[in-house]
Amino acid sequence: MRDTKESRLLLVLLIAIAFALITVDIRGGEDSPVDGARQAAASVFGPIENGVSSAVDPIGNAVTAVRESGDRHDRLAALERENAALKAELGSDDRGRSRLKQLDKLLGIAGKGQYGIKGAQVIAIGAAQGFSWTITIDAGADDGIKRDMTVLNGDGLVGRVTTVGPGTATVLLASDPDFTVGTRMESSDELGFASGQGDRPLRVELLNGKAEIKKGDRLVTFGSQADKPFVPGVPVGVVSRVDPSGGDLTRTLYVTPFVNFSKLDVVGVVVQAPKKDPRDTVLPRKPEPTPTPTVTVTVTPSAPADGPDQPEQ
């Protein structure tokens, strides 16, 4: 349409009619005189709108799907991460229970002996500074660890601290050939010195060559002057073999240590010695002997065999 005076007048007239119709429709409410026209228009254009909507909806859905696909991918990735974390947590649950059990035993032995300990975890095992049987723990000078402190776990004597760094320390294990600790026999109080032999039992030289020792007897640490490097009363091991007494000044024993040196994880460093020697109180209770079943056989005499028939009288 050309921009003329007539076209402008027509446009103004149409706008005025439109406003008038709107006013009449609003004032009329449900009885509006244009309601019939609205319904007629709806019946004509409604199917067309539905058709257009049906044609457009798949496109709109596709656009929405593309737009939300990133969100779904993020949610899926988050769920996968949560699942992996849960699997890792479940997978390490046994290890967590094992550490909790070790810590419980460690606190038990520390309580019995009245040892002030600093808990630590083994972070490395192997040769260090020329020692063949050592471990590295995640506690050091910043944690109050010093050289020549006793190291134990929930089973007994682990070793002694040899080198200390700010956050770590090296422990010489009791199984090392260069390791020696004073020992005392349970009950009999016989003194000796235990030395490491690698993966073999500890070798103990008793000072009394005539001491009466038998397999199954147990040893604890005797303790050192000023409690360094060893505090008293820490369980060492069980006698597994006794060499025959040959009249020597000393007697040799072989002792299986309480500690399994190949399975060390949670340990404790004794940072405060007990006020008095705990003696044998830290030793675990001896297992009850299993009774040997006895079988009693009772022989029931058999009935006498019938003799030959007797002739009738």
UniProtKB/TrEMBL annotation:
Biological role: Involved in formation and maintenance of cell shape.
Pfam families for this protein: MreC
Species classification: Bacteria, Bacillati, Actinomycetota, Actinomycetes, Kitasatosporales
Keyword Disulfide bond: no
UniProt family annotation: Belongs to the MreC family.
NCBIfam families: PRK13922.11-5
Protein's recorded name: Cell shape-determining protein MreC
Skewed-composition ranges (Basic and acidic residues): 275-288
InterPro entries registered for this protein in UniProt: Cell/Rod_1, Cell/Rod_MreC_2, MreC, MreC_beta-barrel_core
Keywords of this entry: Cell shape
Ranges where the record places region Disordered: 275-313
Residues of the Rod shape-determining protein MreC beta-barrel core domain: 130-270
